[in-house]
Write a structure and sequence with these properties.
This protein is mainly alpha-helical. It has helices at residues 3-8, 15-28, 40-65, 70-99, 113-124, 135-138, 154-181, 185-206, 212-237, and strands spanning 29-32, 35-39, 107-109, 130-131. This is DUF6594 domain-containing protein.
Length: 238
């Protein structure tokens, strides 16, 4: 193709690719009050979204033809396998950040000399950090697979741990105190039944795991604790 033909027919950028990069840019390489950051988890999420586009492209080819062949099957299987692997990797990245945010291996920080050298490599090639996303903006950013754009702050995680510990203590101690104050068999059984139902509904609504067997196991464990206490309280009342 002659140069003039290339100028007359410029390559049209993929709109999905551009929108994906634009949405993730401020979460990947950004600047906050502490310095520059390079978030590999956000980079991975951007890639996951583009992988979904590739799956749809292959599906579109199959649907247009109205049939599949071995090549389509192999291509689709490989794309799905890579996407499932990416989902598992995302969970690993999330767990690594939650365990030790200060030493998160998927977040490069300019305060560290070795990582600052890596980040300066980007700046040296004209890739400058974007303005960091404020917490109020985060909810307005486009959704991508894998959960929140970034991890909650250490203060927020600490509050969540304390709140969970407090709620866990209350849902166990409150019914026991009530059964001691109202030491009748009917009251004990009614308290156990009501608290177990409330616990089951709360776990089903708030638990990150929606597997029925896990919800059943948690409810059964809670009910077993109350039943043991009811048995002891009933014997004590006789």
């Amino acid at each position: 193709m002659a140069p003039n033909d290339e100028e007359a027919n410029p390559v049209i950028a993929d709109p999905v690719s551009k929108s994906t990069v634009d949405a993730a840019r401020r979460h990947i390489f950004y600047l906050n009050e502490r310095g520059e950051r390079f978030n590999m988890t956000a980079l991975h999420r951007m890639n996951m979204h583009y992988m979904r586009k590739r799956i749809l492209d292959e599906t579109m080819t199959i649907l247009k033809k109205g049939e599949m062949n071995d090549g389509n099957s192999e291509a689709l299987s490989l794309l799905m396998q890579n996407y499932c692997t990416a989902l598992r990797d995302r969970e690993f990245m999330r767990d690594a950040g939650y365990r030790d945010w200060a030493n998160n291996p998927f977040l490069l920080r300019s305060e560290r000399p070795m990582e600052r050298q890596l980040l300066s490599h980007l700046s040296g090639h004209g890739i400058l950090p974007e303005r960091g996303v404020a917490p109020a903006e985060n909810d307005l950013m486009p959704d991508m697979p894998g959960g929140p754009w970034d991890y909650p702050s250490s203060a927020r995680r600490r509050r969540e741990r304390y709140a969970l510990a407090t709620v866990g203590g209350v849902i166990l101690v409150a019914p026991m105190v009530f059964m001691v104050l109202v030491p009748t068999k009917a009251a004990n059984l009614a308290t156990t039944a009501v608290c177990t139902m409330v616990f089951a509904v709360a776990v089903a609504y708030f638990s990150p795991s929606k597997l029925p067997i896990e919800l059943l196991a948690a409810t059964a464990t809670y009910a077993a604790v109350l039943v043991v206490f009811v048995g002891g309280a009933t014997v004590g009342c006789q």
